[in-house]
Amino acid sequence: MMHAWYALPSPAAVNLPMTLCGGQCFRWRRTPRGTWVGVVERGAYELSDAAHPPEFQAVHSRGEEKRGMRSSLSHPSDDLTGDVLWFRCLHREPKNALDLCTEACFLRHYLALDVDLQKLWRRWTRDNPMRDHPLVRYLTSNAGKGPFVKIRHLRQNIHETLLAFLCSQNNNVQRITGLVEKLATSYGDHLCDYNLETGDVRNVGYLNHSSTRSTKNAKRADTGDGDWIPLHTIPSMDELARRSEDELRALGFGYRSKYIVQCASIIQSSGATRRKKEEGVNCFCSSMQSYKWYDDLLDPCLSLSDRREKLLSLPGVGRKVADCILLFAVGHHEIVPVDTHMAQVATEYLAGTATCSKKVLCNGMGEKRKRNSEGKSSLTAVSTDGSCWEKVLADWYRKGKERDMKMPALLHKHHDAIQLGFWHLFGDYCGWAHSILFYARMRRGQRDN
């Protein structure tokens, strides 16, 4: 069965390969036809950035208001201007079905097409008063000449993001993707089968998950059938809480197995909820079952530091994993997760050039930070206990040099200082600038190897 393509006009540039498979999300794969197929929430989708996919209808901005976004249907003969993304919904559960306009709004929200990335790029570089800083010059020279500028942050579900980054420890993108797919095929609900060569869809919703499903059947489903691959949802915490550590180890999760089972038990025991569509950060992500633990994490009264501490209380969640969840799923665009790549960038372009300054409450565009009712900056959660972030980084760099350490040990205060350094240079969306640098750095490492 074939499904119609629809156009999603996008004045905002987006690079699908780097956005969908660049290390922030692990549910998409490229097809031999040059398209991208994946599962978002409880729906299966195919995306394309080709010039003219066949048999399309258009979803235009034409004055119809949909939850703050404007979209409506138009005839295929209508002219399309600007960049266009193409999408088709392969399957969505009937109880969670959306009309076409809402489906388009959902994908625009998921792909963050409302964020003016070109404007951000100008603010980070050309219009940045600190454009001569070594890190700003590094961003411009290494990312400005390629497609990296079109990398966007997907608005992902907290549940999926937590499970994905629990699998990320000591892993690369390819292996993380494989582990996340094993979770889905082993314990998630089947949505449909997809043919990689032809784009056909079959067996729509024919095999919903059963608690008696065996590991043997899960492995058989994982291999697919020729060019056909099964598409599954991410399992609920209820389902994972019923599993044993040994069972996950048999699937190849190793020491991460106990963290997945323990986190599932903690979150599942908080109780299941179903948040209203208009509530919370992920306002379109209403089809997934939620839990009180997640709702508490999104409580608007919680500060950034409180949210981080709540995540750090989970087994297997360290500083980097917590920051990835805050950045990619909770909407804290000012977060900069620090891994090996970013630590190297910090030693070369932040720490080595740092000299103490008192201007820690002013970002790179010269704008003062918003303050809460107590008069505190919203970034006080990443302060360095009253120390100047530049001094902390300078000391970190100096101690590493004295001990001939290529990479000095990272403490929480160093994570905080690196994050403040990025924010000082790039402002409230410094997490997006970090992702562009991360991907450029990762690609450079792949070429060097």
Automatic annotation (TrEMBL):
The catalytic activity of this protein is classed by the Enzyme Commission as: 4.2.99.18
Query: PANTHER family given for it?
Result: 8-OXOGUANINE DNA GLYCOSYLASE, N-GLYCOSYLASE_DNA LYASE
| Residues covered by the HhH-GPD domain | 167-399
| Name of the protein in its database record | DNA-(apurinic or apyrimidinic site) lyase
**Gene Ontology BP terms:** base-excision repair, AP site formation; nucleotide-excision repair
* Keywords on record: DNA damage, DNA repair, Glycosidase, Hydrolase, Lyase, Multifunctional enzyme
Q: What class of enzyme is it?
A: lyase
GO CC terms in record: nucleus
Asked if the record carries the keyword Lyase, the reply is yes
Where do transmembrane segments lie in this chain?
none
Report which reactions are catalysed by this protein: 2'-deoxyribonucleotide-(2'-deoxyribose 5'-phosphate)-2'-deoxyribonucleotide-DNA = a 3'-end 2'-deoxyribonucleotide-(2,3-dehydro-2,3-deoxyribose 5'-phosphate)-DNA + a 5'-end 5'-phospho-2'-deoxyribonucleoside-DNA + H(+)
